[in-house]
Write a structure and sequence with these properties.
This protein is of the alpha/beta class and about 140 residues long. It has one domain: 3-Layer(aba) Sandwich (Rossmann fold). The chain has helices at about 20-35, 45-55, 70-85, 105-110, 120-135, and strands at about 10-15, 35-45, 60-65, 90-95, 110-115. The longest helix is centred in the last third of the chain and has 16 residues, at about 120-135. It is globular and about 35 Å long. The two termini are about 15 Å apart. The mean pLDDT is about 90.
Length: about 140
């Protein structure tokens, strides 16, 4: 997906020890087909590595996925915290995997959105990313 600026750049990563990366691989491929540039980090990443890569690559979005257990409530907020500490809170963070409904408002409150599970339509994911980047990162209306 392009605008007059450049293609949307997405860092796709799984923090922690979750090894269920099939959905993230699918998402990365679909985002590439939609014209986005994807920096695929895959599984077993620390929040620090994810944020450092996103900053170095001038990413517009960090797409996080976690399926294993409830530890996303540690990893996902840590990514947002590190973005703030590094003056990079304009990088959008979207989430996928298995996020339980009661945690979604807590994550939305800190700026994480999306919550695309295994059955979410790919068009909805792509549109969500494009809308957030245009609105929050590139300030287009």
């Amino acid at each position: 997906m392009e605008t007059s600026l450049r293609r949307i750049r997405v860092v796709a990563a799984m923090p922690g020890l979750d090894c269920h990366d099939r959905g993230l691989i699918f998402l990365a491929n679909e985002l590439r087909k939609a014209g986005m540039e994807v920096i695929y980090l895959g599984k077993f990443n620390t929040p620090e590595h994810i944020v450092r890569t996103a900053i170095e690559e001038d990413a517009d979005v960090i797409a996080l996925s976690y399926l294993n257990d409830h530890l996303y409530m540690i990893f996902f907020p840590k990514v947002v915290e590190l973005l703030k500490e590094n003056n990079a809170s304009d990088i959008c963070v979207v989430a996928g995997g298995r996020v339980i409904d009661e945690d979604k408002p807590k994550l939305e409150e800190i700026g994480i959105s999306g919550f695309f599970g295994q059955e979410a339509p790919i068009e909805a994911m792509i549109n969500h990313i494009v809308d957030r980047v245009k609105r929050e990162r590139w300030q287009e209306n």
